[in-house]
Model the fold of this input.
Amino acid sequence: MNSERFASVDAIIADFAEMDYICSRRIATCLFVAHHLGRPILVEGPAGVGKTELAKTVARYLDQPLVRLQCYEGLDESKAIYEWKYGKQLLYIQLLKEKLHEVMGDATTLEDATARLHAHEDVFFSEHFLEPRPLLKALQEPEGCVLLVDEVDKSDQEFEALLLEILSDFQVTVPEIGTITAQRRPFVLLTSNNTREMSDALKRRCLHLYIPYPDAALERRIVAVRVPGIDAALRDQLVAFIQRIRRVDLKKHPSVSETVDWARVLVLMHADALEETLVRESLSVFLKFEEDIRRVEQEMTTLLHESRAELAG
Amino acid sequence: MDRVLTDFIQAVRGAQVRVSVAEALEAHEVVRVLGYDDREALREGLGVTLAKTIDEKSRFFAAFDRYFTAEVFADAGHQDYLGGDEEALASEGGNESSTLVEQLLRGDRAGLMSALREAVREVGVSEMTLFTQRGVVMQRLTARMGLDRLDQELAGLERSGQGGSDRARRLREGRAYLIDQMKTFVQQQVALYTGASGEALREQALAERRLDKLEEEDIARMTELTQRLARRLARQHARRARRARRGQLDVRRTLRRNMGFDGELFNIHWRRVRIDKPRVVVICDVSRSVSDYTRFLLLFLHSLSEVMDRIRSFTFCADVAEVTAIFDEQPVGSALEAAQAAAPIGPTDYGRTLAHLVERHLDAFTPRTTVLFLGDARNNLSDPRADLLKLIAQRSRHLIWLNPEPFVTWNTGDSIIATYQPLCHTVRECSNLKQLEAAVNQMLRLTTRAA
Done:
């Protein structure tokens, strides 16, 4: 089935559009190359341009489960790769106490008892007692999966090192058991908001895709697909206004998802044109800082005027 | 391996995009998958493979466009004499004409182009590092292209009185055209391969230039260099802070916690080293005697305060003013002016500055603070108040003094650095970016050492 997928760059664009994800040629080419080379993709870009959405869409496209690992400061291997089920180990030891007595029963010396235990000790460190976390789970999926390592820039530098083995060889090493290799290579995507530079070692193993804010034409198409009920003229005005606002020096610029939210709100309010009062009332949908709102309110008339002029020109 | 791609990767490296061997191999894979036909797809595909930061991407795409559009012998203006009644002309010369002459007379653009590419490769244009090597390269290139044979033939024609013949005229025109096209091509190639290494050399030279001896055109580049430096320092320092955080097994707590499990150690407790967040206080002289330096010192400070949390900044001249908020809130351009303007103007007075620091901001100096003092210690003969500096030094972990003047002029005229020197932990000369980097590096090392 998967052989028909990723047939060509144009096919990817068309198929993704059908699933309501409008991707640029750059994104499609990157997916194409990643699939054929079996490489992970490191996706960078400002928040809310559809990085996580891309991973979800790829999962739907491949008809495979999405395994997601959300990164944060202090994330370590016991939360990301695997952990021993301590409780289960403890419980089993209790339950098997009698059995242990049997095994140990006629041991006379300490050496003898230790030797007998040695013959059995690996029982408690086998895969039955292994709690797979997202990364290991992704390798164990028999049908393959899409692995999303979200906001990898939030994790610590040391955590990157843990990722390297998975990214280049699709395997993890558990000291007590050995190396676990992927049943089927997952399609791996890592996203980063660029709060810090990722290490060269990580970048070397990945394709690097930068998704910027979309241009007006692309954003219009995205809004049209995501909010089908919106009037075309209103949509164009709205996108022009958002594009204009992104050039104002703000703490946080409105992202694509916020454009879509705003479009939904305007549809709910039965708006048919971008009136100044209407914009004032709904500013908080796409501006998340008091300062930014104040700033845009002050320059509202000019901004609206300029965005209309741009649309007309 | 295909030559076009190998050469292209060389060019990409020349444009200061770091390409590892693994990535170069991967690029070959990409070409295998995508092919050369769809140029846009190839551009994007190689872009995601070779360029791994946003800056690198823009440089990569520029290099791609330059490399794959570097075509000569294509302009229509020369159509009239390249080509034409080739049969007659080619046969005239008989057997002795060289390939080059034939190609020129026949108007074989593709042939000329591939000959030129071949020659360029043999001469090794891609290994050039300096644009000054252009002359030498042109010489070798003309020899390689077989221009001497053409010249011989021209000379022969003239000797035999055929200098005015159609063939001779065409050869002369063709020669001029060829040289012209070769120059263009070499220029393109040079831009491709040397752009970056030349840039690197210039940057190195800038870093060692004295800050008050900068040309106007250097300032923009210097600004960028300064910011990059600050970012790099902050990044290195962040790594150190993280390393210091790693703990060891806390045996006492682990035992205590697991008493409920009959002494079995199920919950392990790690000892956490307290993270020592750096506290830095920077006091910067903005008086006229150091005004050439302050621009960069302030710029550097601003870049640092963007990446470090706990910096308190002061500027002073006749008196001191805190500019922490200015640095935090304003963009570079206005912040520098505002910070410079914040300090009361007048003859520099280190004594008064120190007095006011102690009076109003003594709480800023704690045993965990590193103090960075930037100034030439030219006190206009007023009271140095060394006792107050001593107080600050005693209260702080470290006091580093950076003097922008060259060492030889210290303690001449009204400079009182000798009075302050024994009170500081370190006194350094800091007149160019390199020294500034070394000083700040030392400061960061001190501030992040685990407590």
